[in-house]
Amino acid sequence: MLESRGRSATITLLLFGAVLFVIVEHDHLVQAGQLTEEFTWTRLDYAWALKGRFGGYRPNYIYGGSDFAFPGAASSGSSKPISTPTDDNKQPDGNVDFIYENNIPMGANRWRDKLFITVPRRRAGVPSTLNYVSISNKERHNVPLIPYPNWEVNQLSSDPSNRIVSVYRIAVDVCDRMWMVDTGIVELPGNRTDIQQQSVVIIDLKTDKIIKRHPLPASVLKPASILALVTVDVTKDTCDDAYAYLPDLAGYGLIVYSLKADRSWRVTHNYFFLESLAGEFNVGGQHFQWNDGVFSVALSEIKSDGFRDMYFHSMAGTHLYVVSTRILRDEALATRSYHGNDFTNLGDRGPLSQTSATDLHKPSGVLFLSLVNQNALGCWNTNIPFGKENFHVIQRDDKKMIYPCDLKVYGDDLILLTNNMPIFLYSKLNYDETNFRVWFSSVANAISGTQCESRRTNRGNRYYG
Questions:
Q1: Do residues 462 and 388 touch, judged by C-beta distance below 8 A?
Q2: Could you tell me if 82 and 148 lie in one domain?
Q3: Which structural domain range is residue 132 located in?
Q4: CB contact burial 89-102 (16+ within 10 A = b; e otherwise)
C-alpha cells in the first residue's frame, strides 16, 4: 500500500465519482438490510492480568518519545498512557510494550462465543496479535481484548515453534480449526523487521493448541510478498484433506497449501495484478494511491464435478474473476506457464467498486463485498448473470463505516469490521471518538429487498453510480 498525494486519477473515474456523489450525498447512510454495531472501540486495550489464566502480563506503556525495543524504531509519542504503570509493572525484554495509537484491528471472525480480533504488528507497541472477546459479554464498548490462545503464544520472546508474530486475518473452518498466515514480520515504518519465516498456522479451537505450522518455502514467495488473508477449502468429511488459498497482494500471485501433502505451490496469472486505472482512493477525507493486487478470494458451494468456483479480485481493481479449484488443487495444472481458458474475467463491477475482503454465503450463492471506496457493504447473487445492474449496496455510512477491512460469513450470519485505516495511516485518529466497529447481521436480513435476494428486478441502491 503506497501513499501518493498526486492527482493522477483519470477524468473518467472522477466524473463517475461525481455522479455517484450527487446520487448519495443527500444522505450519508444508504441501507437495505440493517447491520448493527455489536462491538465498538475508541482505542484498543488488552486484558492485562496480574495472575491466573491470562498469563500474568502487564502493559509497559510507552509515550513521550520513549525508545522501543527494536533497533532503529521509535514510539509514536502518545501524550498520555491509558494508566500509570507501577514499579513492578515491567515486562521481560520489553516485548509487551504498548502504544495504543499503534494498535489497529484488521480482522474479525467468530467461533461459537468467541469473536476473534487480529491486530497485526504494523507498528511498534502491539502486545498481542491474535485476540478475542466474548460475544456473550454484556459490555459492548471498549471491551479489552484477550490474547488467544494465551499471552505466551503472542510474545516475541517465546519459543519460535509456539509463537505467533503478526496476523492480518483468520479463517475458521467446519472442522473447528483456525487458519492464519503468520507473516513473521514487525512492520516498523522504514525498518521492516523479519522475526521468523512466514508460515501457515492452524489452531485446534477445541483445545486451543497449535496443531500445524507450515513454513512457506522461498520458492512460493516474492521479496514483496504480503499474505493478509486466507480462505480454506474443506468439508466436514475431508478435514485431513483441506486446501488453503493465500492471495499475495504485493507479490501478485496466489499460494495454494495442501494440508494432506503438507506442501505449497504458487499460481501466477495476469489477473492477479493491480488494474492501473483503479488505484485511486478517497476514503475518510484521505486521497491516496494503492497498488494492491489480488486481495481476497471466495469459494462457491461444491459443484457437480466435485470442485468449487473461486471468485477473486484485486484491491486496486474493479473486475471480478473466477477459476475452478480443480485447477488450483492440482499442482501440475496450477503451476503451468500458460493457463489457456482456465481463468475467466466475469467483467467490470463499475467505478468506485474497489473491494477489500469478500465472502460467499454458500446456501444462497450471495457474494458479499467490502466496498472500501464507498464505505459500504455490497452484494451480488452468483445465481444471477454477472452485470453492473445486479450488484447492490446493502448499507453505506460515510461516518461509521469508513474502510470496511474484513468480512466473514459465519453460518447464516455476517460479520463486518470497519477501522478507519486511511485516517490511521495518513492523518491521525481521534481517540475520544469511536474508531473501530464490528457489525453483525443475518444474511437474510442483509439482502432483504435487494437484487441479491431473488431474481426479481430491483434497481435501487446499485453501487456503480
A1: yes
A2: yes
A3: 44-176
A4: bebeebbbbbbbbb
Cβ neighbours of residue 200 closer than 8 Å, sequence gap 6 or more: 179, 180, 181, 212, 213, 214, 216, 230, 244, 246, 257, 264
Residue 218 lies in a domain: no
Convert 382-420 to b/e letters by CB count within 10 Å (16 or more is b): bebebebebbbbbbbbbebbbbbbbbbbbeebbbbbbbb
Q: What is the distance between the alpha carbons of residues 170 and 232, in angstroms, rounded to a whole number? A: 10
The C-alpha cell 469511536 sits at 434
* Contact (CB, 8 A) for 371 and 378: yes
Residues 67-114 pLDDT 10s: 334 332 333 333 333 333 333 323 333 447 899 999 999 999 999 999
Number of domains in the chain: 2
Q: Are residues 343 and 400 in the same domain?
A: yes
Domain contains 217: no
- In this structure, is residue 112 part of a structural domain? yes
Dihedral, CA of residue 2, residue 278, residue 343 and residue 416, to nearest 10: 70
Looking at the fold, whether 113 and 8 belong to one and the same domain comes out as: no
Residue by residue, DSSP assigns 39-94 as EEESS--B---SSSTT-S---EE--TTPBPSSTT-B----SS-SSPPPTT---GGG
Separation of first and last alpha carbons in the chain: 26
Predicted local confidence at residue 448, as pLDDT: 94
What are the pLDDT digits (tens) for 42-69? 999 999 864 444 455 667 776 533 333 4
Name residue, grid cell 473466477. 322
Greater confidence (456 vs 327) lies with 327
How far apart CA 387 and CA 462 sit, in angstroms, is: 11
Cβ atoms of residues 197 and 184 within 8 Å: yes
Whether residue 225 is contained in a domain is answered as no
Strands 60-61 and 97-98: parallel
3-class SS shares of the chain: helix, strand, coil, % to 5: 10, 35, 50
